[in-house]
Amino acid sequence: MPEARLRWPLSAVLVTGPSMSPTLRHGDAVLVRRGGRAVRPGDVVVAVFRSRPDLLVVKRAVRPADGGWWLYGDNDLVTDDSRAYGVADVIGRVVARYWPRPGRLPSRRL
């Protein structure tokens, strides 16, 4: 079960790869909240693609789709998102980056 990967209401996740650049970079550490307010378009989330249940990803929520979410990375040159893998199930929302540049993440209107 994907939710087991984030056992606590607030968990740390390490970003790998360039798909969320410039918002998040490879090596950034973020805090992810399970529960709380509902996901909205523009939120940065941690999710699992239904077609790749073994892969935990950090992406931006674009729109609800088929009981899950359609997700995109912020880096348009990398398409390892819903364009390649389809609908994802969101596990939690990224609420802040805590390392190496602490701060809240900018929201994007979609």
TrEMBL record:
Alphabetically sorted, this entry's keywords are: Hydrolase, Membrane
Q: Please name one Pfam family that this protein belongs to.
A: Peptidase_S24
Q: Which InterPro entries match?
A: LexA/Signal_pep-like_sf (IPR036286), Mito_IMP1_subunit (IPR052064), Peptidase_S24_S26A/B/C (IPR015927)
Sorted alphabetically, the Gene Ontology cellular component annotations on this record are:
membrane
| Keyword Nucleotide-binding attributed | no
Domain (Peptidase S24/S26A/S26B/S26C) spans: 12-95
Q: Gene3D superfamilies of this UniProt entry?
A: Umud Fragment, subunit A
| MF (Gene Ontology) | hydrolase activity
Q: Does the keyword Repressor apply?
A: no
Report the principal subcellular site.
membrane
Q: Could you tell me where this protein is found in the cell?
A: Membrane
Q: What is this protein called?
A: Peptidase S24/S26A/S26B/S26C domain-containing protein
Upper classification of the organism: Bacteria, Bacillati, Actinomycetota, Actinomycetes, Micromonosporales
